[in-house]
Amino acid sequence: MNNKYELVDLPSIKAAALHLTIPRSDVSEEMGPAVNAVLGAITSSGLSPIGPMFAYHLSVSDTHFDFEVGFPISGDLAPVGKVRTIELPAVSAFKTTHIGPYMGLYEAWTAFGAEYKARYPQQTSKQLFREIYRVGPETTLDETKWETDLFIPISHS
């Protein structure tokens, strides 16, 4: 992780996505087929992704991931299998970037979460969070150059 933190405003995003609730240990096996299903649905609908892949985590658990994996799109996508159109809400968020292999994301999230709690102790931990995979295996096979943006929403109440 780069240890650079900032507040950003994320716009709402229309996306094609697939919902997964899986054991944490299965993420490396399940992610590839899920990504392929989403990309296949987008392509078969005559659309193209207009941004990088994301994961939108709906809940936090020590044993499972409950999240949407998808890509931003500009048009409407009729459901294809389990892939459907979703709208990610616009939010203000605390952000950092993990640089390196996906295997390091757990440690990156642990450090980022600690920094978030230190800076924003009034925030709840039940907030949804996002990952945006800006640079990954589709861009370079050199895992040390992969870049994943991590976001935790900030409420202004």
Keywords:
8-stranded antiparallel sheet, 2 helices
Structure summary:
This protein has 157 residues and is of the alpha+beta class. It is built from two helices and eight strands, in the order ββαββββαββ. It has an eight-stranded antiparallel sheet with strand order 1-6-8-7-3-4-2-5, with helices on one face.
Describe, in plain words, how this protein is organized in 3D.
With 157 residues, the protein is of the alpha+beta class. It contains 2 helices and 8 strands. The chain has helices spanning 27-44, 105-119, and strands at residues 6-10, 13-23, 54-60, 64-72, 83-88, 91-99, 129-135, 147-153. Strands 1-6-8-7-3-4-2-5 form an 8-stranded antiparallel sheet, with helices on one face. A hairpin with a 3-residue loop joins strand 3 (54-60) and strand 4. The longest helix has 18 residues, at 27-44. The chain is globular, with a radius of gyration of 15 Å. The mean pLDDT is 91.
Structural class category: alpha+beta
Q: Based on Cα principal axes, name the global outline.
A: globular
Helix fraction, binned, reads 10-25%
Strand content: 35-45%
Count of helical stretches: 2
Strand order across the biggest sheet?
1-6-8-7-3-4-2-5
How far is it from the N-terminal to the C-terminal residue, by CA? 29 Å
- The whole-angstrom Rg is 15 Å
Poorly predicted ranges (pLDDT <50, ≥5 residues)? none
Order of helices and strands: EEHEEEEHEE
Mean pLDDT: 91
Q: What characterizes the major β-sheet?
A: 8 strands, antiparallel
Count the E strands.
Answer: 8
